[in-house]
Amino acid sequence: MTASVEHTVAGVQQILAALADPVRLEMVRRLRNTGVATPCALLYDGINKSTATHHFKILREAGLTERLVLDGQIHQRLRTAEVEAAAPGLLAAVVGKANREAGEG
Questions:
Q1: Predicted structure pTM score
Q2: Which residue range(s) make up the domain with 44?
Q3: Which residues form the HTH arsR-type domain (predicted)?
């Protein structure tokens, strides 16, 4: 397993800006709900790969996710512990609300 260069968690404005986009919020929601590193293709619907790559970059730059290569396949991992340390309760609140809106919470 290899990981990309790890970023620190950004400030709250950059985190909220990253989560404000519905596609990125859905990616984070799926990652939080699975609780494990997940293949990129399982984290989005209805967009092309290059657009997804752009969204993953924004999430990574905000310090929300990291890119992993597992058995030659690219996965994303939500940096839950790191985000919780930097912004306690933020992910739980935002993803909890997104789950309720999606009828999953």
A1: 0.91
A2: 12-98
A3: 4-98
